[in-house]
């Protein structure tokens, strides 16, 4: 099966419809196919089919109903002594930032600041919908997914009692490869992927999500070569709160952050140097208390 284009038979199977329905939609202009230049047969661009899938309709309806788990769930973060100081402080500063701004923020973390825990706590009281986490590589993705695995007794939320012992824990799904289960994503609060999978399958899985599907995107930076890969995510979900995380221990991150701060107009349409939450402010705050 061609990744980008589907025959009318494959398109009908993908949408769980009949070929007669697709021909009728073509006739009335609801879904117009292209024509294969070699034989003039109908062919459908996969990305054009996504909004007609049952799962896409369910995803849109879930947004309309309101997906406010992170705003209605009681969390114990700011005074939780089970958390590292860096985890509490990062959460509070990011929360304060989004209380007064909708612009993206860059957070430069000190070494051993507990990044997975920071990711696990950031949405509570801040995100009004699902959270997309983009790890810098597959190893980091596995580490984050393991920390957020609610079936594991060592799950971060269980160990730290951020959510107490009686509340429902967030649901998590991992996107790895070009095949996306929108059904699983629709039932999850966190969706985790990595930049390699994103680069390999951006055109394949991004169109499967409505543009307001994610309310927060947490991006673990690696090096500046990945910036163009995140561009497509930013374009697809323009209303999502964006948080960029980087660790001081990575020698590549100084260059990455400088490019984010100086050249981000090509990434997100604005300069990150203009943000109220600068890397210098957070760097000093965390270094003084870690």
How would you describe this structure in keywords?
three-stranded antiparallel β-sheet; Rossmann fold; 290 residues; alpha/beta; Multidrug-efflux Transporter Regulator, Chain: A, Domain 2; 15 helices; 14% strand; 2 domains; disordered C terminus
Computed over alpha carbons, the radius of gyration is 21 Å
The profile of the biggest β sheet is: 6 strands, parallel
CATH topology of the largest domain: Rossmann fold
CATH superfamily of the largest domain: P-loop containing nucleotide triphosphate hydrolases
Distance between the termini: 52 Å
Tell me the helix content. 40-55%
What coarse outline follows from CA principal-axis ratios? elongated
How large is the count of helical segments? 15
Mean pLDDT: 79
CATH class membership of the largest domain = Alpha Beta
**Can you count the beta strands?**
9
Structural class: alpha/beta
Strand order of the largest sheet: 4-9-8-5-7-6
**Proper CATH architecture of the largest domain:** 3-Layer(aba) Sandwich
Number of domains: 2
Please mark out the parts with pLDDT under 50 across 5 or more consecutive residues, or reply none. Answer: 263-290
Order of helices and strands: EHHEEHHHHEHEHHEHEHEHEHHH
């Amino acid at each position: 099966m061609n990744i980008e284009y589907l025959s009318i038979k494959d398109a009908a199977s993908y949408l769980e419809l009949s070929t007669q329905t697709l021909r009728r939609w073509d006739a009335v202009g609801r879904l117009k196919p292209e024509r294969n230049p070699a034989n003039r047969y109908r062919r459908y661009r996969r990305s054009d089919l996504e909004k007609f899938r049952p799962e896409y309709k369910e995803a849109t309806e879930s947004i309309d109903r309101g997906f406010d788990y992170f705003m209605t769930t009681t969390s114990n973060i700011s005074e939780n002594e089970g958390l590292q100081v860096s985890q509490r402080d990062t959460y509070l500063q990011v929360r304060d930032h989004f209380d007064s701004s909708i612009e993206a923020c860059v957070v430069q973390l000190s070494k051993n600041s507990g990044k997975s825990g920071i990711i696990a706590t950031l949405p509570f009281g801040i995100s009004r919908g699902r959270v997309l986490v983009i790890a810098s590589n597959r190893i980091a993705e596995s580490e984050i997914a393991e920390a957020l695995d609610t079936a594991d007794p060592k799950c971060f939320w269980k160990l730290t009692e951020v959510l107490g012992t009686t509340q429902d824990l967030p649901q998590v799904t991992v996107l790895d490869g070009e095949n996306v289960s929108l059904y699983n994503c629709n039932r999850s609060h966190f969706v985790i992927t990595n930049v390699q999978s994103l680069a390999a399958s951006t055109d394949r899985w991004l169109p499967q999500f409505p543009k307001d599907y994610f309310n927060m995107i947490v991006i673990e930076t690696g090096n500046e070569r990945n910036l163009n890969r995140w561009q497509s995510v930013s374009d697809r979900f323009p209303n999502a709160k964006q948080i960029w995380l980087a660790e001081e221990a990575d020698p590549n991150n100084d260059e990455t952050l400088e490019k984010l701060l100086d050249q981000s107009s090509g990434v997100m349409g604005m300069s990150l140097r203009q943000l109220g939450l600068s890397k210098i402010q957070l760097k000093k705050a965390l270094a003084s208390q870690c």
